[in-house]
Amino acid sequence: MGAAGAGARRPRTDKQRNRAHILEVAEEFFSERGITGSLDAIAKQAGVGPGTLYRHFPNREALLAALLQTRDEELVSRRDAIRREEADSGIALARWLEAMGEWLTAFDGLPEPLRAALSEETSPLAITCQGFITTTDEFLHAAQRDGAAHPWVRGRDLFLTVLATAWVRSAALADESSPQALHALMQSGWMTPRTERGPLT
Amino acid sequence: MGAAGAGARRPRTDKQRNRAHILEVAEEFFSERGITGSLDAIAKQAGVGPGTLYRHFPNREALLAALLQTRDEELVSRRDAIRREEADSGIALARWLEAMGEWLTAFDGLPEPLRAALSEETSPLAITCQGFITTTDEFLHAAQRDGAAHPWVRGRDLFLTVLATAWVRSAALADESSPQALHALMQSGWMTPRTERGPLT
Amino acid sequence: MGAAGAGARRPRTDKQRNRAHILEVAEEFFSERGITGSLDAIAKQAGVGPGTLYRHFPNREALLAALLQTRDEELVSRRDAIRREEADSGIALARWLEAMGEWLTAFDGLPEPLRAALSEETSPLAITCQGFITTTDEFLHAAQRDGAAHPWVRGRDLFLTVLATAWVRSAALADESSPQALHALMQSGWMTPRTERGPLT
Amino acid sequence: MGAAGAGARRPRTDKQRNRAHILEVAEEFFSERGITGSLDAIAKQAGVGPGTLYRHFPNREALLAALLQTRDEELVSRRDAIRREEADSGIALARWLEAMGEWLTAFDGLPEPLRAALSEETSPLAITCQGFITTTDEFLHAAQRDGAAHPWVRGRDLFLTVLATAWVRSAALADESSPQALHALMQSGWMTPRTERGPLT
DNA sequence: GATGAATGAGGGTTCATTCAT
DNA sequence: GATGAATGAACCCTCATTCAT
């Protein structure tokens, strides 16, 4: 017992190995069963004691944060790619929001702790969220400068909307078209622009 | 012990009394502590055994559904009022969405089980949701007929959006302006209408 | 699983049965392994779930208190017997202290929680201790009235001394004569009375 | 990490430095939080790994023994002072017992492991205790020779009594007068000397 | 020697749910 | 029907101790 899977019994720099292995298992676990599963169970499946898991990640949030950090890099790449490739700031924003949305649906139940983290300054997840909001703000400002986005929109709100959309999506799976529909709603709203209809009076 | 607490000594029509009393207590409980509290605690506070609670409501969802049904009536009234008072179908839809949004924030954590219910046909909550979607569709169709809403929007998607907004709101408390911002986003989207900017190319 | 040992699967007034059975097991457990053993282990050995044990005794102290209450009756009998039989108030006190001392060595480690309880008013054990102190005071007052006990002694201090003696006894087992020696010390002190030696100066 | 924290950067005589530093930290730790605290925490606070701590002190008892050895010297000084200054062997004994009592309350919880050690020959703490008992015997013999102490008292019993008194004192804090009362009890017992009351018959 | 990661049994506790009474 | 005792898996977490590096 206690082996890190890959062969010998605790070979060399096993801290990193263990950490990585735990993350792997946790990723799988969270993906399959959602992020509410038992940490002890993850430890067991990873072949380590609960203490080991606890050493690496003092609580569920820390584990999640570490897990996301890995995924973060992918998102950063996408961000850079969008910046590089996309001249139209509106489309760039759209693509970024889409990328974020995909990222947020990585695990079932992920939006929940992120939302919770938003209310607590100290959480490691809060930092992640802040990063997202900042990036969103960048894309948004560019779009606003170009007149592609409403001036009254804030990055934080966009993030929240994407988050909420990601959250709701888990349920709407049965309905294939929901994701796009929600995306469209977020983009254009349900209301037709007044200009098309004449003044409201 | 075992009496219905609130004065009387449990005469004949126990069952109905109990049911009503449990609902009352549950309402208070859920309102104050969110819907994740212990059912045992509710039973205890209602002065009944957990078995009794379970007889009336086989699980948390059933209890919640019963609870919401009561609240439903309020929402129905609002719906009727809107229908009666509001000539502009767009504004009517807007008001309806707002009413629904308020309703969905009645208890902390309420959106979660509703979302879950959407994936399961059999859930008692699913029926409630269906009712909402239907009503939303009615308002929406009217609005679409009048050109006040985009023709591609579906009632289900609007409901999901309102639900998601209600969900995200619990976290955004610190930020006072979030609710409105999200509302505006849902209504108008972040993107400026193309007509204002010229063709997309 | 889950049966209370004695045959059928949860026969009649099993609450009392279970309670009694748990107490029995706990008594055995505490006697053999001291009072620091795992509560879960006791539950398991009693054939009940941890929750059941918890329901009956919300914590270790409560369990202990219940256990002692049973023993209490024995002590009360002894107290009454002493009162009945013993004319010499000094000897009566001595016998009571001895009885208490024996009672306090019922389980290994028992003095510890009792000592701890003395600092906390709310503890169920504290009440037990108070009872002892009161009784000690009664015997002591009689002895003092008869000139058999020093007037400056207080019941509380005598109790503490007996408690301390019981505590220290667990270690001194190897030394057979320690209990008596300590008893004698408590009774007569180590110092010879000044009257035998003349004034101190 | 892993440096000895307190300034220097761990030159050659690591081992001794480490040992000393661990002892320092442990002393502080035990004084403040009692001797039941986590050894890991001590190691961490001392800036060494738990392995290092364990190398020096294979278990909690060993650490404690080492710690007490340092304090021992103080007690030895007091012993010598008493010997030097005190002509009256009875008062000398009393002073020694008092000194020992103070020494035993150095850390919260100290009496416990000492008592335990008394049952095990091999314990490092047992040696410390033996020293105390020996010294007590010396004072006691002198007092007995002078008729100041009962001839039936043994040093070991006196030590046990002082130990027990130290133990019980932690609980009796609320009661300011307990320490003195217990001291008096140990000295004179609760029973009035028979000579004052006539023969027992 | 020193390190500190790993161990893993064990701690107390909660609670949705069942079922004998 | 109502009751509430029983269930027992699950939760998170701690820490003395070992041992590979």
TrEMBL record, chains A, B, C, D:
Keyword tags: DNA-binding, Transcription, Transcription regulation
InterPro entries (UniProt xref): Homeodomain-like_sf, HTH-type_TetR-like_transc_reg, HTH_TetR, TetR_SbtR-like_C
DNA-binding region: 38-57
All residue ranges annotated as the HTH tetR-type domain in the record: 16-75
Pfam families tied to this protein: TetR_C_43, TetR_N
Protein name, as recorded: Helix-turn-helix domain-containing protein
